[in-house]
Amino acid sequence: MTTTELHDLSIVELSRLVAGRKLSPVELVETLIRRVEDHDAQTRAFITPTFDLARRQAKAAEAEIVAGGHCWVGAWAKSRSRHWTKVY
Fold first, then answer.
1. C-alpha span between 15 and 9 (Å, rounded)
2. Beta-carbon neighbour count of residue 75 at 10 Å?
3. Are the C-beta atoms of 26 and 62 separated by less than 8 Å?
């Protein structure tokens, strides 16, 4: 999967890939960090990047998935009715 493909996917699509073990949390985080590093000089979208924290959390999630434990994968999204809904 290329960087372009990953950053174009929704959080729901990414969550499904991680849940299906087609994409590791570490791979996702590293790809998105590279994208931020490539574009942040122009966009200045991040005041304080917390890449080390993101990497630690991705490694912990991956270890939990590999161990067969529960790793909550999903996202909360606001529906058209303006209520928060859990989506997978």
1. 10
2. 14
3. yes
Distance CA 49, CA 5 (A): 22
Does residue 88 carry a pLDDT above 50? no
Q: Is residue 3 within 8 Å of 35, Cβ to Cβ? A: yes
Q: Provide mean pLDDT across the span 22-41.
A: 92
Burial of 57 (0-12, 13-18, 19+ CB in 10 A): middle
Which amino acid would we find at residue 48? Answer: T
pTM for the model = 0.71
Residue ranges of the domains in the chain?
Answer: 3-87
pLDDT of residue 67: 85
Burial status of residue 71 (CB atoms within 10 A of its CB: 0-12, 13-18, 19 or more): middle
Dist CA 45 CA 31 (whole Å): 17
